[in-house]
């Protein structure tokens, strides 16, 4: 899950030594907790506090990096997107305490071992077509800048790679299309959701594409462009 870095605030590294020691002990104790122990709200909050300073109310990019390292998942792994969906996080690279608690209670995870034990479950959510559609739609709002209605194309391409790169045969062609058609600087939500529907319903050879269908102009132009590319490729080999 891509994160936005921030600079360390003044005094953030100047905690009293006893606070550092307490934090280390808390982290060590939770790492050893049994995955079969009952969920504990206080323990879950203490776990959240491992990734924030004493004055922060939100787990930010630096804390996210440490969190990902602790659970053994790369920030760019699609599992992190599934987790963010489970937490219903509003901003990429950030988890509020409220989001954390709501999601972790749902997952019944209050420590690292318990969440690690849920990673396969989170990954399996992506294999269910209905849940995947929900995560795909969530990704648009999650990745766009706050107060913006559209997603910039570079971020959209990165998120499409994360979500569809391994399962949509035309993904690389669509990415190339966006690279060449620079007038598409942003993608709105209708276009975003239509890409998923297109990837699920249109065959790689475009044989079932209906030119009179209610597709966004962007996808109509993509089909036209791809047919030209395929025709040129065919001419070169014949």
From TrEMBL:
Gene Ontology biological process terms in this record: protein neddylation
Pfam family, one: Cullin_binding
PANTHER family: DEFECTIVE IN CULLIN NEDDYLATION PROTEIN, RP42 RELATED
Function statement: Neddylation of cullins play an essential role in the regulation of SCF-type complexes activity.
Protein name as annotated: Defective in cullin neddylation protein
Domain of life: Eukaryota
Domain DCUN1, first and last residues per copy: 39-227
A molecular function (GO) term: ubiquitin-like protein binding
Cellular component terms per the entry's GO annotation: ubiquitin ligase complex
Region (Disordered): 1-33
């Amino acid at each position: 899950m891509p994160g936005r870095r921030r600079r360390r605030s003044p005094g953030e590294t100047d905690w009293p030594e006893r606070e550092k020691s307490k934090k280390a002990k808390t982290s060590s104790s939770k790492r050893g907790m049994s995955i079969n122990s009952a969920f504990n709200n206080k323990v879950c909050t203490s776990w959240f506090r491992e990734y924030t300073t004493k004055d922060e109310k939100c787990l930010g990019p630096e804390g996210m990096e440490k969190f990902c390292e602790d659970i053994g998942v790369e920030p760019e792994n699609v599992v992190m997107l599934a987790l963010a969906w489970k937490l219903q996080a509003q901003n990429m690279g950030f988890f509020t305490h409220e989001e954390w608690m709501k999601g972790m209670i749902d997952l019944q995870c209050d420590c690292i071992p318990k969440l690690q034990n849920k990673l396969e479950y989170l990954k399996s959510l992506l294999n269910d077509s209905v849940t995947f559609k929900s995560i795909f739609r969530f990704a648009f709002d999650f990745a766009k800048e706050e107060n913006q209605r559209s997603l910039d194309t570079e971020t959209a391409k990165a998120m499409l790679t994360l979500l569809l790169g391994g399962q949509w045969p035309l993904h690389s062609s669509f990415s190339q299309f966006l690279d060449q058609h620079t007038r598409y600087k942003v993608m709105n939500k209708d276009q975003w959701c239509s890409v998923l529907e297109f990837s699920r319903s249109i065959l790689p050879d475009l044989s079932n594409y209906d030119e009179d269908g209610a597709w966004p102009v962007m996808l109509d132009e993509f089909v036209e462009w791809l047919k030209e590319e395929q025709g040129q490729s065919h001419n070169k080999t014949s």
